[in-house]
Amino acid sequence: MRLAIKEALKGKANTYPNPRVGAIVVMDGEIISTGYHKRYGAPHAELMAIKKINNDISGATLFVTLEPCLHYGKTNPCTEIINPKIFSKVVIGSRDPNKDAAGGMEKLLQKGISVEGPICENECRKINKRFFTYYEKKRPYVILKIALTLDGFIAEKNGTSKWITNAKSRKSVHTLRANCDAILVGNRTIEYDNPSLTSHGVGKDPKIILFSQNNIDTKTKKVYEHNPIVLNKGENNLDPKKNVDEILKHLYSKSIQTLLVEGGGITISHFLKADCFDELHVYYAPKLLGKGLSFFHGKNSLEQNMGLTLKKVEKFDNDIKLTYYKK
Ligand SMILES: NC(=O)c1ccc[n+]([C@@H]2O[C@H](COP(=O)([O-])OP(=O)(O)OC[C@H]3O[C@@H](n4cnc5c(N)ncnc54)[C@H](OP(=O)(O)O)[C@@H]3O)[C@@H](O)[C@H]2O)c1
Fold first, then answer.
1. Ligand 1 pocket: which of 146, 266, 269, 272 to mutate (most atoms within 8 A of CB)
2. SS3 track for the chain
3. pLDDT tens sequence across 91-142
4. CATH of span 2-128
């Protein structure tokens, strides 16, 4: 199964909205074929592995990181191509959380194939964190991203924030955007920065999500060139917890699997205070302001805090990036 996971990891973000999946065919203790899901619309991992084997064999075992699907989408159900004359056993790494595709395990048993698993389940789930969060929690996977001076400010007191970080850091943000389905920023950020919120040609552009704005001249703001989804604040509850829940529910219904929230501080604080996020990405630049706009508007104590785990440290010349996961 660990080899099947390695196969799955060959698939990159362009499998979205499908998960990354790897498959291995074993016969008499030897691997005779491998396959992975390359991109959305392309054959699934099972087919990629099965089409390379000789149809005369029997008693083979298929290892697959996710339960074979049971639905007609861009391709036929994977359970259809798993032939009991060839396969006596299928070992799965995780069950499919998508109700429309799940049930493959039962179907294989009906076909007389023995099914084992899930095995290495945590590892198999880890490679598709966004997919599992979307289907199990019924909300997008949420990444909060902020750029800070060394003394923790997001902008000068007058709202100027261009630029805190260097060009290399900003390029890495463009890649992050290309790997997310949607991007949200607060109204004051639109007003002060007039950002484009695109991936600047690095990859696909995320869908732009905005709060409705009364005082902003929308004709002069770049984000309106990209047909954004505008959240009607009239429908939003004032309690930040409920408000964030509502926003995420709405984006779930729009099939947004990963949401990137890029500030400013007020907007990010709503997600932090509601405890509704999965990753926090912090860029630090070696600049000091003394006075400025804050990143966090909550009231935590040293004892009662966010439960963050440091997952990655990256260096972009003089800047550093810290990636935290929510426990
Ligand atoms: N360093 C960085 O990484 C970074 C990133 C982005 C922005 N910035 C800087 O940050 C500053 C702006 O940040 P900010 O903290 O002042 O404001 P902000 O977060 O950009 O915008 C806050 C406004 O957005 C709307 N909003 C946010 N969350 C909402 C929610 N849950 N429900 C309804 N409406 C919501 C509200 O608009 P209304 O007031 O209209 O109700 C709120 O006042 C700018 O100076 C910008 O340059 C820095």
1. 266
2. CHHHHHHHCCCCHHHCCCCCCEEEEEECCEEEEEEECCCCCCCCHHHHHHCCCCCCCCCEEEEECCCCCCCCCCCCCHHHHCCCCCEEEEEECCCCCCCCCCCHHHHHHHCCCEEECCCCHHHHHHCCHHHHHHHHHCCCEEEEEEEEECCCEEECCCCCCCCCCCHHHHHHHHHHHHCCCEEECCHHHHHHHCCCCCCCCCCCCCEEEEECCCCCCHHHCHHHHHCCEEECHHHCCCCHHHHHHHHHHHHHHCCCCEEEECCCHHHHHHHHHCCCCCEEEEEEECCCCCCCEECCCCCCCCCCCCCEEEEEEEEECCEEEEEEEEC
3. 999 999 998 888 899 999 999 999 999 999 999 999 999 999 999 999 999 9
4. 3.40.140.10
161 lines ligand 1 (CB under 6 A): yes
Third-level CATH fold of 138-326: Dihydrofolate Reductase, subunit A (3.40.430)
Q: Choosing from 7, 46, 67, 262, which is the catalytic residue?
A: 46
Res 234 pLDDT > 70: no
Question: What is the per-residue pLDDT for 70?
Answer: 87
Query: What mean pLDDT comes out for the span 157-175?
Result: 96
279 catalytic? Reply is: no
Is the minimum distance from the CB of 165 to ligand 1 under 6 angstroms? no
Domain extents in the chain:
2-128, 138-326
Does the structure show a pLDDT above 70 at 230?
A: yes
